[in-house]
Amino acid sequence: MLRVRVIPSLLLRDGGLVKGRQFKHHKYVxxxxxxxxxxxxxxxxxxxxxxxxxxxxGQGPNYELLVDIANEAFMPFGYGGGITSCxxxxxxxxxxxxxxxxxxxxxSNPDLIRNASRVFGSQSIVASIDVKTSFLGRSEVYxxxxxxGTKINPLDYARKMQDLGAGEILLCSIDREGTGKxxxxxxxxxxxxxxxxxxxxxxxxxxxxxxxKAVSEGGVSAxxxxxxxxxHGKHKAVLITYPSYDELKSLx
Length: 252
Hints:
By secondary structure, the protein is α/β, with parallel strands linked by helices. The chain contains 11 helices and 14 strands. It has one domain (5-251): Alpha-Beta Barrel (TIM Barrel). The longest helix is centred in the middle third of the chain and has 11 residues, at 110-120.
């Protein structure tokens, strides 16, 4: 097993697999269950699914789809989107999901993180933090799919999530997401150094070297990416792919 987890992070919207840029302009790229079948063949160790329509549409998780994904996936996977209660979290674990990922609900109802970590264990509760950084370098946590600013510094927020009981942080730069310009290393380093729990980098990976920098310079424990594993070439043709074990082993 690799020392560093390399996780395809896949976006769901209305039951389909989508990709966008900076949390906007999402387009349909395929069926999520078919994508899982391909990732099985690629021997991916872990997947993440984030349903961007679940919270904005006021819906709960799409359990029917998640059952289909769980029945097909050979690897553990995490899920986030529309989760508002411990009852929903319990139902997700019973489906076979290994980790639940809380974003907007962690902000609006911090007790959900606290209670969920007590009931199910912190190792299964992930706090998702989406961050925008201004031209002046001021970073701010955003929720609701990056549409609502909170005026909260990501370092303070990450420490709060840790104190509440989160076992891991999924940290995404909204400015970098879908751009292929590389992760926001300054953001990764600052947050990683402010907490003791693992931080997973997300948003901006365009090549394998970006991932090694996120670990060596950003100090994260794992890396997640979407475009790199879904698109191919400068015209972004849809092609599900994943680096070989030897390629990844040589990175870290």
